[in-house]
Write a structure and sequence with these properties.
Elements: H1 4-25, H2 27-30, H3 42-66, H4 71-96, H5 100-121, H6 126-130, H7 133-155
Helix pairs in contact: 1-3, 1-4, 4-5, 5-7
């Protein structure tokens, strides 16, 4: 078995764990803010992120094993890394620091990074790009939800 079959899922797990720890640390604050009626339950959000992280790990593995090495590979791998940091950053801004407005921007950048990954990976692996579609859709939704929460709590 190749080492990447252990290392890549481990990195994805650590990103998920970091976000989860930051989020759980901000739940007391989260319970005090105004949320739109259509906010998904914590169980739905947790299930969605679990599925997204599993699909993302598979996407990175497919990318790693199929994409030819070179400058483009390095750039795409860097974008995957930036995406991971942006994922953690959103949790930190929203749940860790309660900076909802900044979290809107962080979520938007996260969404752009996912869309960029889909576009760059698609020519070599349709599967690896399609596996990221739920991530893109969820982050677009989460960005709108974050904006709405900001609107409900800061702008009014």
């Amino acid at each position: 078995m190749k080492l990447n079959y252990i290392v890549i899922p481990l990195i994805v797990f650590l990103v998920a764990l970091a976000g989860s720890l930051i989020t759980s640390g901000g739940m007391d604050w989260y319970k005090t803010i105004r949320l739109p009626d259509w906010t998904p339950s914590g169980a739905v959000i947790g299930a969605a992120w679990t599925i997204i992280f599993i699909l993302a790990a598979i996407s990175v593995l497919v990318f790693w094993n199929k994409f030819p090495r070179g400058k483009k590979f390095n750039w795409i791998f860097l974008i995957f890394f930036i995406n991971a940091l942006l994922n953690i950053l959103w949790s930190y801004l929203f749940f860790g620091q309660h900076l909802i407005g900044w979290a809107v921007w962080g979520a938007g950048l996260l969404g752009l990074s996912v869309i960029l990954l889909i576009a760059l990976i698609r020519p070599v692996s349709h599967l690896a790009s399609v596996l990221l579609f739920p991530y893109a859709i969820w982050v677009i939704f989460a960005t709108y939800l974050t904006y709405t929460v900001w609107n409900l709590n800061i702008l009014k």
